[in-house]
Write a structure and sequence with these properties.
- This protein is elongated.
- Helix 5 packs across helix 10 (367-382) and helix 8 runs parallel beside helix 9 (332-344).
- It is 21% helix and 26% strand.
- The chain is built from 10 helices and 24 strands.
- The strands form 5 sheets. Strands 2, 4, 5, 7, 8, 9, 10, 11, 12, 13 and 14 form an 11-stranded mixed β-sheet that branches. A 4-stranded antiparallel β-sheet has the order 15-16-21-20, with no helix packed on it. Strands 19-18-22-24 form a 4-stranded antiparallel β-sheet, with no helix packed on it.
- By secondary structure, the chain is α+β, with helices and mostly antiparallel strands.
- The chain folds into 3 domains: 12-107, Sandwich (Immunoglobulin-like), CATH 2.60.40; 109-382, 3-Layer(aba) Sandwich (Rossmann fold); 395-505, no CATH class.
Length: 509
């Protein structure tokens, strides 16, 4: 046999070995991805049962054996952030000695986040519908060339009644460049602005995953494990699921009016394949579809958070979410439920958007403000920006004194009002012992003015508290804010963050 034949025989033999072994990396792992810094990083996949696995990255090497079911997992040691483009290599040797190898190129280390929710999370930075794309999106996309920020679109608008271990859609990590951001499908506008702000402040790579679908309820995004400890959601947790071909209109009930709105089914199909990816947290914008069941929503938020935290194996998983913005109908109950959850969950914080809604469009297109406010929460609570006031003002105390109601707040050292027409209709109401609500004015803003006077009622406030009064109420006992149309907020803390809807009363001792 001549040398050419010998080499051919070797090549065939090696090809046989490489094709026999079965090592695979899980769906999240693809070229140009970002790994989470400063934490042990889960890397997992599948192989032949008993196959010996070695994963190498950034000088570290970890090994394991694939289980009887072929699944394997290792944890890379915690790493510092790095913009260096490096290879991640996974090698396998099965029990017959056959070898296989998977290489990922251009892998960075930085901060990893997930973006999820319904249409206001889905609204793209750039789109062909002016009513469903960011107002500044094309300009921002054209100016953005940040290759150390990577995103992946994790949605194909399908659902599953059972959790999927492999993503049933293509996973392609893309860079923040004009070509990518201007192309369809463009990424979530709030996700883009959030990532840009983090990168600007931290100067480390940022990776963000996006799964969202307009008109979906919170239940569809909640993993089964999240319902443990939520007795009020027993009916939701136990609902029988049906596949796409089995769905019938008579199955509509509550927030479920289509197959993809059944509990857990979007989690199963879109998010489950990413577990247990190591990440810092997730941003969330949803609520419209559940607005009619506000009495359940806080508990549903707990189920969502608990489920994501368990499935991503991160008890400190961060959740930063958006309170619904004003529209042509009242979100009052849902907004209060969102605030209730934020007050109860230590790892969650809420962005208030009462100042940037659109009374005739449920999709307000000023997503830059939303993304910046979400990023501010992360910078304050996760990244050590201790002097940054990122949290909206929250009522801390209330007392009635000499015909006035005095309100004290967290996250506020002073106040101002921005009312575009220079007005004094603040959306505040007071009630006395008889329970009758009357329009209130702010004693220590605009000099206590009760009528508008352009150029004079400029919104300046005095003092740290808000002092309220209402004509005809001698002993105010209750207060509420933004209960009535148009539900638009005009009151801001000195941080520049708006006061959100609330209701409170003086406690009688």
């Amino acid at each position: 046999m001549n040398m050419k034949c010998i080499l051919s025989a070797i090549a065939v033999a090696l090809g046989t070995q490489l094709s026999t072994a079965q090592i695979r990396l899980a769906s999240p792992f693809a070229d140009s991805m970002v790994l989470q810094r400063d934490r042990a990083v889960a890397v997992w996949g599948s192989a032949a049962p008993g196959e010996r696995i070695a994963v190498e990255f950034a000088g570290a090497k970890v090994e394991t054996l694939a289980g009887d079911d072929g699944r394997w997992r290792v944890d890379l040691p915690a790493m510092a952030a790095s913009k260096e483009s490096r290879e991640l290599v996974a090698r396998g040797i099965d029990v017959q000695g056959n070898q296989s190898e998977v290489k990922l190129s251009d892998v960075l280390v930085g901060e990893v986040w997930y973006c999820a929710g319904q249409s206001n999370a889905e609204m793209p930075l750039v789109g062909d519908n002016p009513h469903f794309s960011d107002r500044q999106g094309r300009l921002v996309a054209a100016m953005t060339d940040k290759p150390c920020i990577r995103y992946v679109y994790a949605c194909n608008f399908e659902f599953s009644t059972e959790p999927q271990s492999t993503a049933p859609y293509r996973v392609i990590w893309k860079k923040f460049t004009p070509a990518n951001l201007l192309a369809a499908p463009s990424f979530s506008a709030i996700g883009v602005y959030f990532a840009l702000e983090l990168f600007s402040a931290l100067d480390v790579p940022v990776g963000i995953v996006g799964s969202y679908w307009g008109g979906t309820n919170i239940d569809a995004w909640t993993p089964r494990e999240g319902y443990a400890g939520c007795p009020g959601l027993k009916a939701t947790a136990e609902r029988k699921l049906v596949g796409k071909d089995e769905w019938k209109d008579e199955l509509k009930q509550g927030p479920v009016n289509a197959g993809h709105q059944q509990p857990t089914v979007l989690w199963n199909h879109l998010v489950e394949p990413w577990c247990p990816m190591t990440m810092r947290g997730f941003i969330w914008y949803q609520g419209c579809h559940n607005a009619f069941e506000s009495e359940l929503y806080a508990e549903k938020m707990h189920a969502l958070y608990n489920g994501w935290s368990k499935k991503f194996e991160n008890p400190a998983l961060r959740l930063y979410f958006v309170q619904l913005a004003p529209f042509q109908r009242s979100w009052w109950g849902l907004q209060l439920a969102q605030a209730k959850f934020a007050a109860e969950e230590p790892n969650a914080e809420m962005v208030t958007t009462v100042d940037i809604g659109n009374g005739v469009d449920v999709h307000p297109n000023e997503k830059g403000t939303v993304g910046k406010r979400l990023a501010a929460l992360a910078l304050r609570h996760d990244y050590g920006f201790e002097n940054l006031v990122a949290d909206a003002p929250v009522l801390r105390g209330i007392c009635s004194e000499e015909g006035r109601l005095i309100l004290s707040f967290k996250n506020a050292n002073g106040w101002y009002v921005y009312e575009p027409s220079w007005g004094v209709d603040y959306g505040l109401e007071l009630a006395g012992p008889d329970g009758e609500w009357k329009k209130a004015y702010i004693v220590n803003v605009n000099g206590g003015a009760k009528t508008a006077n352009p150029w004079w009622t400029n919104g300046k406030g005095e003092g740290r508290d808000l002092v309220l009064a209402a004509d005809g109420i001698e002993k105010p006992m209750k207060v509420r804010y933004l209960f009535n149309k148009p539900w638009v907020g005009t009151i801001y803390a000195d941080s520049g963050l708006p006061l959100g809807p609330f209701e409170a009363e003086v406690k009688i001792k």
